Amino acid sequence: MDKNEIMLQGFEWNLPADGKHWDRLASMALSLHRAGVTSIWLPPAYKGTGGQEEVGYAVYDPYDLGEFNQCGSVRTKYGTADQYTHAIRTLHRFGIKTLSDMVMNHRMGAELCEKVKTHVVSTDNRMEIQPETQNSLLYTKFIFPGRKGRYSNFKWDSHCFTSVGYDKKDPDHHLFLIDGKSFAPDVDGELGNYDYLMGCDVDVNQRDVKKELIRWGMFTLNKTAVDGFRLDAVKHISAGFMEEWLSALRKKTGRELFTVGEYWSANLASLLSYLEEVHYSMSLFDVPLHYRFHEAAISDGSFDMGSLLNDTLSKTQPDHTVTFVDNHDTQPGQSLESFVSGWFKPAAYGIILLRGQGIPCVFWGDLYGMPYQNIPPVKNLRLLMRACRKYAYGQLYDYFDHHAVVGFTRIGDSEHRGSGLAFLCSNQGDGEKRMFVGQEHAGETFIALHGGFPPVQIDEEGCGTFQVSERDFSLYVPAKARSNAPVFAVNKDRLISEAASA
Fold this sequence. Notes:
Blueprint: E1 7-9, H1 21-27, H2 29-34, E2 39-41, E3 47-48, E4 59-61, H3 81-93, E5 97-102, E6 106-107, E7 112-120, E8 134-141, E9 161-164, E10 176-178, E11 200-202, H4 207-224, E12 228-231, H5 239-253, E13 258-261, H6 268-277, E14 283-285, H7 287-298, H8 313-316, E15 321-324, H9 345-354, E16 359-363, H10 364-368, H11 381-390, E17 396-399, E18 405-410, E19 421-426, E20 431-436, E21 445-450, E22 456-457, E23 463-468, E24 473-478, H12 492-501
Parallel strand pairs: 1-2, 1-16, 2-5, 5-12, 12-13, 13-14, 14-15, 15-16
Antiparallel strand pairs: 3-4, 6-11, 7-8, 7-10, 9-10, 9-11, 17-18, 18-19, 19-24, 20-23, 21-22, 21-24
């Protein structure tokens, strides 16, 4: 992907279920490009059990992109199949790559029950499996009556799953392993084995299922022309299968297919181990960094800012990292709620957008606000996005050497005239820091794009003393850069209109 990319998560949980989101994204393509967005992670586009109300993760039929009358509607929450493919084509015309959100772990909403022998499993320790079998009545047979075999005539039944969370004959228990099946060993070890997450757990290593999932991947690429994938819940899916799936699609298409996986764990060692298991065939979201941001934001100044980047994926494996501040799972009201407080969020975005360690992902709810919850857009986020594309080049120098005031610089490069920057943030008290911005800037003046401080003269050693206010950030750039036309001119009226309709 391009240098100084900015990924946008193109949705939040509480978007209106008006069927207009794909059209909305198409209409916004120009301004997204101007704001610096280079790729967009699209929400799950296929039919879920909630039909036109479904966010997308309760997967029913992955081949129904809003084309068939199933689950009570033809369209999905976001629109129809035609609107979806039109949005992707439009985004492509403005140089914005698209990522399809692929949910492979589970299926939900089967039409028919099957009589199946199962073993009761402890929900607290999935290694505790009762040896005796029982006769269960499971919703595991999917017939997709609205699609009638179009695109795929694959039959999903109990042979395709390892485990389920509901037995009609035994509603008191909540996890059942299908007799003859076993949990995948190459998954996260939480709860003993975290193969099962919800619904009917797909047996990705069953031969016919594996072929079908590869077929579905090819269908997605051919039908929609997306450029890559966001993989949901990879900690619950066989690592060996995920690598095989990606390898098969790349071989068949001859394309890069940039892919980022969601491995939800704050444990850096787990993420590093997974990257090794899949032989670095994908990137991962930097979940540990998100939790560091959250901890800093709620600590009332007691968090050691010097340790902010410790034990994070972006610091350890920046070439295989997508950084983020918040997403649809961490926003208020969601199961993983850990929303980064508003006062700290601009500083957090400055860190992921300007340091150049990993690909930064901007959350829709932070860029446009979340009207459903009366949460406004993040202040200065657009400024930081434009700064990423215009100034954030050259070697990085970190100054995470103080418990309250930390910063970094980028010295710029010859390919981007006027590039280079100095960034500071504080979680308590005003502060200042002498930082190196490069000897090539000696004698130049840096001005504050944010912070309200006087210009800084760079000395003969290439250093300047930069200031920051309490619980704020400051951003300085070369004064000569301000005489250049901005790389991305933004139509303010258009953006205000978009934010109001988003």
